[in-house]
Each structure stands twice: as structure tokens, then as C-alpha cells.
């Protein structure tokens, strides 16, 4: 399909990238990006680019990815609890300053022939064009102005803030710190030779005890909560090597997951955070927006009309986004409940982190990081970390004996007779989340039981939720916990065992 005029509302990475791709596909079209801020105005610090994202960007437009990589900073990943550190050698992890990313994408868009108009806001109704791409962010005025997009916004329970520091960490790091008020967890990574991003999370109770409810209320949306930064730089002084924290409109927030019933109306299409968000622990909004742009460009190139293209774009792209959102919600809830896992050995905690959302299986993690993964598995199996790893790790994990109170089991398969034992409470788990009020009631009702047997739907998402509920029960009761699973979910059960999400499993049909 030939496009003559395209307008992009919002000059973030997704909008700029979409404009460039469409200009390359439609060299004679007039394509303009309208950004209400100045070219160098941005909020935030670094943007991470995982290897899969890099591959997708290279296939779509190698030149722009090369320009991004030239300004990016490579790093590895680690997790620290107390003095113990687990390191992953991921040489393909990149991060780039958001200001640098915007500068690169602005240059790439201009080089392709895109017009960039700064300092003004445009409304879709005022634009006489073939296509309007609304990439105007999580607070999208385009989406908000028309209820037909059917936006649904869910707010998480934990709190987080973005800040930075003026040195490059030796690697990306996940590190918890417990203060007199509670536990804070930092996700931090270097993105330049003299800069690192620090994202810090906590729960509502800790946030309130530390007085951050008051500092948040006293901080204007355009300002930084300096009181919180001063507190946190002391709490994370070891990780920061006594450097300070830097703010940029930094204040505590709750993550909002945006979903829309419709991604397009007429010739207006939402892109990136305007259409959907996924928790930052599983993938950045920048990644999603740029991959949206790739899918939109492909749909427009193949269709005969704009309407057909937008329908095809949503048909193709929505399943991938919704799948990622589902995984992201599980990851978000894992991080919100992180403090309950801090008694795990750090390598075992790294296994729990990697398999937390069901996106990465234990076997895949074992292949990519055998040393760290095996140490975590060895901690679970209570054998020496330097012992020889088995050829079939899953079989070995399931064969580990268990001593629980005065009971002994020769392996991790629950005997069928245990279900019928009078001391066993059988619970059919039917909750959307392991952390909502309904799940809390399930946990509370089973608290007095000596054995809890969790059953329910055989759908994988339900099995993963069942394992999460089991983990809550293991952390809050002394009961023996069994999770019933279908045969096809054995890999999830194996990861759950190593991650201390259940004691035993029962494999059904």
C-alpha cells in the first residue's frame, strides 16, 4: 500500500522508529513527528536492550541498530544477597542513555527524510493525513480522549522509583537491603562509562514506615523526592560505593498495566505505552514500542488499505503483547514479594528469579549459565556445589529425598495415598493471582493443616499460579505442601521445586 501522508504524535523511541521505518518503506511520503517537548527533553536514565530485542531491530533496520550499539554500553548481570554474589556472563546485554537513544533515533529519522516538529501538540482530528500514529506514552492524550479505545488500567501494589548515579557499576545487579523500616530492592545497571540506572522497589508498609508517604505527598510531580534519595543512598551505600543518587522528576510510583480493547479507531493507531504496558522487570516499554513499529510497518506494506493494515497489525501483534503482559504481571508480583525469599542461597535465588514467570525454563537456564544454575540446584539437593552435575538434571531434581518434620520421602513425587490422609487438606485453587485477597483467604484457611494438597485446572497459567500459592504457604506455614500438575507441566514443577515453590508434586494425567 502506498502512503502519502503520515503523522506521528509523540517523539519517543517508538514514534521515531516507526516514522523511520515507514519513510524507508514509503520514500515519497510526507512523514512528520510532532513532539510537544524540546528535542533534548527526556525523563529517566538508561534503556536496556536484550539480545532478542537487538536481533529484532537488526532484522528490521540494521543501520539504526548499528548507530544505537555504537553509543551503547555492554554489561553482565549479577545478584547479591548479603555478602554472597551470583554472576551471569551475558556479554550481549546492552544499555544506552535515554537521551542518547533519542538523539540517535532523531538523527536516523531525519536521515531517512522524516520531518521532526518540536514544541507543539497535535490532535488527530486536526491532521489531514492517511495515518495517525499515537505514540504519546502511558498518559496518552489520544487514548484518554476517546473511550472507544476501551482502556483498562490496573495498578500494582508495590512502589518504585527511578534514579541514577554518576559511575558505572561493574555489572547489572539485583540487590536487596533491609533497613529499620523494611526491605528495599534495587535493580541497577550501567549505561555509560560514568552513569548507572538505579530502580528501587519496596512494599507499601515499608514505604509508609520510612515516611515516604509524606515525602511523596510533599513532592510536586515536576520535582524530585530528594528526601527519599538521601535515605536510599545511605541504605545502598555499599552498592553505590558511597556515590550519590541522581534524580530526574524522581518520585515513588505504582506500576500501571495498560490494556486496550481496541488499538485503532479509523486511521488512528496506538503504539507502545499508549496501547499497552508490561512491567519493567520483564521488558522495557521502549522494546515493546519499537517492536510495535516493526509489526505496523510490515502490516502497512502488505495491506491494500489502512483499515486492513491496522486490523492485521493488531491481529498479529496483540497475542505477543498479551503473552508478555501475562508473564510481566507474574514477574511484577514476584518482585513485590521478593523479601520473603531472602533466606535462599543466592544461586538458588537466581534460579527462582530466572524461572519466576515461566518464560525461561530451568533446562534453558542450565544450558546458558551452567555454573550458577548448578550451584542453585545443588543447594536445593543439599549436595556440594563442586559435585558433578547429572546428565539429566530434571530427573535428578525429582529424585531428591525430602525430610519434613518427622516424615521422610524417597523422592519429590507425592504418594497418592497422601491425598486421602485425614491430616491432608485438599484445596482447589481458582484465583487470578497468588497475591490477591482471594488467594490470601485460601492461604489463611489452610494455615492449621499439616499437609496441604493443591489441585485445580490443568491449564499452564493455572499451574504456575498454583505453584505461587504453594510458595506463599511454604513461607507462612509449617505444612508439607504438594502441588498437583499435568504431565506437560513437569518442567514447571521441576523449576518450582528448585525455587522453593513446593515440597512435593503429584503428576496427574
UniProtKB/TrEMBL annotation:
The keyword Signal does not apply. Residues 99-325 form the FAD-binding domain. Signal peptide: none annotated. Keywords: Monooxygenase, NAD, Oxidoreductase. InterPro entries: FAD-bd (IPR002938), FAD/NAD-bd_sf (IPR036188), PheA/TfdB_FAD_monoxygenase (IPR050631). GO terms for molecular function: monooxygenase activity. The keyword Oxidoreductase applies. PANTHER family: 3-(3-HYDROXY-PHENYL)PROPIONATE/3-HYDROXYCINNAMIC ACID HYDROXYLASE, BLR0106 PROTEIN. This is FAD-dependent monooxygenase.
Amino acid at each position: 500500500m502506498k502512503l502519502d501522508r503520515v503523522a506521528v504524535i509523540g517523539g519517543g523511541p517508538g514514534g521515531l522508529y516507526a516514522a523511520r521505518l515507514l519513510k524507508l518503506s514509503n520514500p515519497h511520503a510526507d512523514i512528520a513527528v510532532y513532539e510537544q517537548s524540546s528535542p533534548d527533553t527526556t525523563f529517566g536514565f538508561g534503556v536496556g536492550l536484550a539480545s532478542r530485542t537487538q536481533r529484532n531491530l537488526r532484522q528490521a533496520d540494521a543501520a539504526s541498530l548499528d548507530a544505537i550499539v555504537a553509543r551503547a554500553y555492554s554489561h553482565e548481570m549479577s545478584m547479591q544477597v548479603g555478602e554472597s554474589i551470583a554472576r551471569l556472563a551475558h556479554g550481549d546485554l546492552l544499555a544506552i542513555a535515554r537521551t542518547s537513544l533519542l538523539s540517535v533515533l532523531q538523527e536516523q529519522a531525519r536521515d531517512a527524510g522524516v520531518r521532526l516538529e518540536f514544541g507543539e501538540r497535535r490532535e488527530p482530528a486536526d491532521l489531514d493525513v492517511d495515518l495517525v500514529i499515537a505514540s504519546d506514552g502511558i498518559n496518552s492524550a489520544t487514548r484518554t480522549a476517546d473511550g472507544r479505545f476501551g482502556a483498562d488500567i490496573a495498578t500494582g501494589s508495590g512502589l518504585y522509583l527511578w534514579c541514577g548515579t554518576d559511575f558505572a557499576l561493574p555489572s547489572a545487579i539485583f540487590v536487596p537491603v533491609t533497613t529499620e523500616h523494611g526491605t528495599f530492592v534495587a535493580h541497577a545497571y550501567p549505561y555509560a562509562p560514568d552513569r548507572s540506572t538505579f530502580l528501587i522497589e519496596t512494599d507499601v508498609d515499608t514505604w509508609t514506615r520510612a515516611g515516604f508517604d509524606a515525602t511523596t505527598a510533599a513532592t510536586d510531580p515536576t520535582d524530585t523526592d530528594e528526601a527519599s534519595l538521601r535515605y536510599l543512598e545511605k541504605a545502598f551505600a555499599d552498592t553505590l560505593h558511597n556515590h550519590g543518587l541522581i534524580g530526574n522528576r524522581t518520585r515513588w510510583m505504582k506500576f500501571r498495566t495498560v490494556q486496550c480493547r481496541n488499538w485503532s479507531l479509523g486511521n488512528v493507531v496506538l503504539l507502545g505505552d499508549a496501547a499497552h504496558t508490561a512491567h519493567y522487570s520483564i521488558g522495557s516499554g521502549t522494546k515493546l514500542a519499537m517492536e510495535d513499529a516493526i509489526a505496523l510497518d510490515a502490516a502497512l506494506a502488505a495491506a491494500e488499505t489502512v483499515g486492513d493494515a491496522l486490523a492485521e497489525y493488531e491481529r498479529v501483534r496483540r497475542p505477543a503483547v498479551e503473552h508478555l503482559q501475562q508473564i510481566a504481571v507474574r514477574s511484577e508480583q514476584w518482585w513485590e514479594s521478593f523479601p520473603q525469599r531472602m533466606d535462599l542461597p543466592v544461586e538458588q535465588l537466581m534460579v527462582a528469579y530466572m524461572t519466576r514467570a515461566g518464560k525461561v525454563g530451568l533446562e534453558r537456564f542450565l544450558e546458558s549459565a551452567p555454573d550458577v544454575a548448578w550451584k542453585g540446584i545443588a543447594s536445593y539437593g543439599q549436595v556440594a556445589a563442586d559435585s558433578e552435575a547429572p546428565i539429566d538434571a530434571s530427573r535428578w531434581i525429582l529424585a531428591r529425598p525430602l525430610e519434613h518434620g518427622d516424615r521422610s520421602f524417597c523422592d519429590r513425587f507425592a504418594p497418592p495415598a497422601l491425598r486421602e490422609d485425614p491430616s491432608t487438606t485438599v484445596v482447589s485453587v481458582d484465583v487470578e493471582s497468588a497475591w490477591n485477597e482471594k488467594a490470601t483467604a485460601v492461604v489463611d484457611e489452610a494455615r492449621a493443616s499439616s499437609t496441604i494438597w493443591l489441585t485445580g485446572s490443568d491449564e499452564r497459567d493455572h499451574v504456575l499460579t498454583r505453584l505461587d500459592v504453594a510458595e506463599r504457604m511454604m513461607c507462612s506455614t509449617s505444612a508439607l505442601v504438594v502441588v498437583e500438575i499435568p504431565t506437560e507441566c513437569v518442567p514447571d514443577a521441576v523449576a518450582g521445586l528448585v525455587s522453593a515453590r513446593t515440597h512435593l508434586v503429584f503428576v496427574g494425567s
